[in-house]
Amino acid sequence: MTGLQDRLTPAQVEAFGRELDAIRQRIVEDLGQADVDYIQNVIKTQRALEVTGRALMYFPPAWLAGVAALSVAKILDNMEIGHNVMHGQYDWTRDPALSSQQFEWDTVAPAANWRHSHNYIHHTYTNILDKDRDIGYGILRMDPAQKWHPYYLGNPVYAALLAVIFQWGVMLHDLEFDRVVRGERTWAENVPVIRRMVRKASRQIGKDYILFPLLTGPLAPLTFVGNASANLVRNLWAFAIIFCGHFPADVESFTEEETENETRGQWYLRQILGSANITGGQLFHILTGNLSHQIEHHLFPDIPARRYPQIADEVRGICEKYGLPYNTGPLRRQLWSVAKKIVRLALPSPGQREPEPVTTLEPELRAA
User: Fold this and answer.
1) Is the C-alpha dihedral spanning 4, 9, 15, 16 positive or negative?
2) 110 near 82, Cβ under 8 Å?
3) In Å, how far are 1, 180, 304, 326 from 7, measured between CA atoms?
4) What is the pLDDT along the chain (368 residues), one digit of tens a residue?
5) How many structural domains compose the chain?
6) Secondary structure of the chain in the HEC alphabet?
7) For this UniProt entry, which segments traverse the membrane (predicted)?
């Protein structure tokens, strides 16, 4: 854990913030038809891949190709389209199909629930312990400041399970089960959340595991497995990209006290210290929804993600100017760093030998 106040002087923090504000303003003023054309082309590609994938399920020799096409379609829908549209990155177009409030993605997590837990909670309180619920998703110990309990000896197992069922983990995350156990939230408050979950999960299950398999007649079992495989690929990919953007070594966390009454410059500083990027080529960045530029995304969550590669070098230069780290590296290195942290934090940190009470979503995950 770091002391934000020790990084820069107040004057430096504000100058730093003004430089980042200038980048944001320049991009906002430049938004136009090229951005619309880009996202529309991605949507067309995603739809074509989904139709192709589902059509190939009718031809057993092409089953693997069908699974591959459907997997990429689901990744694009989840990462480059759904995540970014629901962040409001295209609200300025006034196009209902690109409205953050109307878009619904191909995953069991309802958009309305996700917009609250992710857009508001996570992006407002990024890496603030006991405020940002994305730290460990309620089941993992991902920071040494989290009090250790023997339950966390299963950290690697819980992480592997979460990766496999990631869309369900994201959905259940919105229940805030640990807060219910502590008496900070009632089940009555969760009723609207649960209703949205049930409706959305029912539609997803019905689509992928009943409707489309039945449409392929005698090939239904093969189609069922193909759809499950595509969902698994998407889950593993999303887990890897998101965890590599938030939990590699040297990504920092913060206390509520040190972030109290923070300025815009201090908020920017926290985003940079609490994020990590992943290097790669253009196709790789598209498949990550440009969350391979997690630093830029945390700085500017509501500008089109396609712009992040354009400003990454400039942001990195500003970090170097102020002596700040810019955490980036290839996927294999960031993923290995995350894996080591998961294993290391399964064990108690120095000075945390006594078991502490812990509440988790473990029962919820077993039920899923």
Assistant:
1) negative
2) no
3) 12, 37, 29, 14
4) 445 667 799 999 999 999 999 999 999 999 999 999 999 999 999 999 999 999 999 999 999 999 999 999 999 999 999 999 999 999 999 999 999 999 999 999 999 999 999 999 999 999 999 889 888 888 999 999 899 999 999 999 999 999 999 999 999 888 887 777 777 788 888 899 999 999 999 999 999 999 999 999 999 999 999 999 999 999 999 999 999 999 999 999 999 998 888 999 999 999 999 999 999 999 999 999 999 999 999 999 999 999 999 999 999 999 999 999 999 999 999 999 999 999 999 999 876 544 444 444 433 333 33
5) 1
6) CCCHHHCCCHHHHHHHHHHHHHHHHHHHHHCCHHHHHHHHHHHHHHHHHHHHHHHHCCCHHHHHHHHHHHHHHHHHHHHHHHHHHHCCCCHHHCCHHHCCCCCCCCCCCCHHHHHHHHHHHHHHCCCECCCCCCCHHHCCCCCCCCCCCHHHHHHHHHHHHHHHCHHHHHHHHCCCHHHHHCCCCCHHHHHHHHHHHHHHHHHHHHHHHHHHHHHCHHHHHHHHHHHHHHHHHHHHHHHHHHHHHHCCCCCCCECCCCCCCCCHHHHHHHHHHCCCEEECCHHHHHHCCCHHHHHHHHHCCCCCHHHHHHHHHHHHHHHHHCCCCCCEEEHHHHHHHHHHHHHHCCCCCCCCCCCCCCCCCHHHHHHC
7) none
The structure's pTM equals 0.91
C-alpha gyration radius of the chain: 21
Pair of tokens at residue 327: 């955490």
**Contact between residue 215 and residue 238 where contact means Cβ atoms under 8 Å apart:** no
Closest CA to 285 of 305, 304, 315, 314: 305
For 166, other C-beta atoms within 10 Å of its C-beta total 25
The residue with tokens 């209902």 is: 96
Range of the domain at 250: 4-367
Report the phi/psi class of residue 26: left, alpha or beta, with left for phi > 0 and alpha for psi in -120 to 50.
Answer: alpha
